[in-house]
Specification:
This protein has helices at about 10-25, 35-45, 85-100, 110-115, 120-125, 135-145, 165-180, 190-195, 205-215, 225-240, 240-265, 270-285, 290-300, 310-325, 325-345, 350-365, 370-385, 390-405, 410-425, 435-450, 450-470, 475-495, 500-515, and strands at about 10, 70-75, 75-80, 110, 150-155, 180-185. Strand 3 (about 75-80), helix 3 (about 85-100) and strand 4 (about 110) form a beta-alpha-beta unit. It starts with 7 loop residues before the first strand and ends in a 16-residue tail after the last helix. Helix 9 runs antiparallel to helix 11. It has 23 helices and six strands. By secondary structure, it is mainly alpha-helical.
């Protein structure tokens, strides 16, 4: 590819070698941020060369290097911030090449700091010239859509700096609009931090839900307020903040699942507890096949004989089969897990409560409500003894309320479910799978009592959580989606909504008003396998 081509990119090989060597020669380290190397490395590289694009002195970095191993037509565009370190950027790209079997010498990346002529950017700034938003957005938008594959560095994983920068959000927005492929990358230290988040008692898995629920591009910042206003208006008008936030969360979720899977499978002897936690996260995000694979790997490394570790893995495997509606297989695995807890005398623990919870859900699905109620009362009792104010206690109470409602014990169901929601709202888990489960059961109660607006509010909040977590397609997500359609149809029938349900929805509206027929709500399996 000739010098000066607008899609000329730098090879990953060059970034990890020639570029980092230039950084070192400039008296800087790999920990230097991009804006710290811009003058003495990036601009310095082409300071004395003639730019092939405008035939003036001073060229873009990418036009100051030559050779097929160093530069060529970009096959990926890097989306990042200048606040990341050059070492982290190089490491991310090299790991990406290694993980995907790509030759670093033939994997060319379009990176704005190296591929835009920074000499001209500085000249324009010194003259007080301003590049219009329209011109800038057209330039970057064309790069995104033409290259078609975006590598987005998001770090740290628990609060990505990337999302707070509005131009990064614009690149993701454009990629989503154009249907481009997006892959999230993170530095090795962040992969280690993610693994550490699940080490020990594993309670930090809750932080993963907070990561996904905390994405908010509408809170982004920019050095030029006009750019910020223009981009946010563009996003709001064309796709909406909620959709873009969900897309970014989807990219992050894929990175988390891939990273956890790679971490577990690369370990010489993966810990059974870690496998259970990783399998749990995968299951709750709908990755059932991958969850089962990880859980079975944990079984091979668990101590032989009866143990709590094996019981936890058996329960998770049973839950996977429940999510697949394989009732017989689920029952066998769950009963084996329960027997293990009895033999190890650990029936008053979170882990045992979860086995009982899963068995209660199974009995509920078979309409064995009295058996389900008995088990769930024991689950609530265990949770209350451990921590009466936890979201896990709230979810157990909500599950019990759901069963009581099906047994026509409406008043007790209302009281328990109301208290469950209060506990959950007061916790730090208002956007977690547990909260989605509670809201689904709250909606069901209002729905049955023909309090349709209240039912819709609860269902919509539950759906919003499922959308952010990527679980709309799982069992719980499908149930709440179906019930929401029935509520909207009933509201439309009564002239209380602008929703147009169509012919099928209109028929459902008649059924809903006359019979209040609801999809059978399955309580969500509560993710508390953290001991």
């Amino acid at each position: 590819m000739s010098l000066g081509d607008p899609f000329r990119g730098v090879s990953v090989h060059h970034l990890c070698n020639g570029f980092l060597e230039a950084v070192q020669r400039a008296g800087l380290t790999r920990d230097a941020k991009v804006y710290e190397v811009e003058k003495d490395v990036i601009r310095a590289q082409g300071a004395d060369q003639i730019c092939p694009r405008d035939e003036r002195k001073g060229t873009a970095y990418v036009d100051a290097i030559d050779g097929e191993d160093e530069a060529g037509r970009a096959v990926f565009m890097l989306s990042y911030t200048w606040g990341y370190t050059v070492g982290d950027i190089a490491d991310c790209l090299m790991i990406f090449c290694q993980a995907n079997g790509l030759d670093p010498k033939r994997t060319y990346i379009w990176i704005c700091c190296l591929c835009v002529n920074q000499h001209r950017v500085v000249e324009a700034r010194e003259k007080g010239e301003k590049i219009s938003f329209e011109q800038f957005s057209e330039t970057f938008g064309s790069r995104v859509s033409t290259i078609g594959r975006i590598l987005a560095i998001m770090s740290p994983f628990h609060n990505p700096l990337y999302v707070s920068r509005v131009w990064c959000d614009f690149e993701i927005f454009t990629a989503v609009q154009k249907g481009c492929e997006v892959k999230v990358l993170m530095p090795p230290a962040q992969e280690e931090a993610l693994a550490a988040a699940l080490a020990g008692d594993g309670s930090q898995i809750d932080s993963l839900w907070r990561v996904l629920s905390g994405v908010a591009v509408e809170k982004a910042e920019a050095s030029v307020k006009e750019d910020l206003d223009n981009i946010l208006k563009l996003v709001e008008d064309q796709v909406g903040f909620a959709k873009l936030n969900n897309e970014v969360a989807r990219f992050l979720r894929a990175w988390i699942v891939d990273t956890l899977e790679r971490h577990v499978k690369s370990a010489e002897a993966p810990l059974p507890g870690l496998c259970a936690k990783v399998g749990l996260f995968m299951r709750l995000t709908g990755e059932l096949d991958r969850a089962e694979s990880i859980l079975k790997l944990g079984m091979t490394s668990a101590p032989p004989g009866v143990s709590v570790e094996r019981a936890v893995l058996l329960r998770q495997l049973g839950a996977v089969h429940q999510d697949r509606s394989n009732t017989d297989e689920a029952k066998d695995l769950l009963e084996e897990a329960l027997a293990a807890h009895m033999e190890t005398e650990t029936m008053n623990t979170y882990d045992a409560a979860q086995v009982l919870n899963s068995l209660a859900i199974l009995q509920h699905s078979l309409f064995e409500y009295e058996k389900s109620e008995s088990m769930l009362r024991k689950v609530v009792e265990i949770h209350q003894e451990i921590d009466a104010s936890s979201v896990r206690t709230a979810t157990a109470m909500s599950n019990l309320g759901n069963v009581l409602d099906d047994m026509e014990q409406t008043q007790e169901a209302l009281e328990i479910t109301k208290r469950a929601r209060e506990i959950a709202e007061a916790s730090d888990s208002s956007s977690s799978p547990e909260m989605a489960s509670i809201l689904t059961n709250v909606g069901k109660l209002h729905h049955k009592m023909k309090q349709l607006r209240e039912a819709r509010e609860a269902y919509e909040r539950a759906i919003a959580i499922h959308e952010r977590m990527g679980t709309v397609g799982n069992r719980q997500g499908r149930v709440v989606s179906k019930n929401l359609k029935l509520v909207e149809a009933a509201l439309s029938k009564r002239g209380m909504s602008d929703f147009n349900p169509g012919p099928e929805g209109a028929m459902a509206a008649g059924r809903c008003v006359q019979e209040e027929r609801l999809a059978p709500v399955q309580p969500l399996l509560v993710p508390v396998d953290f001991n």
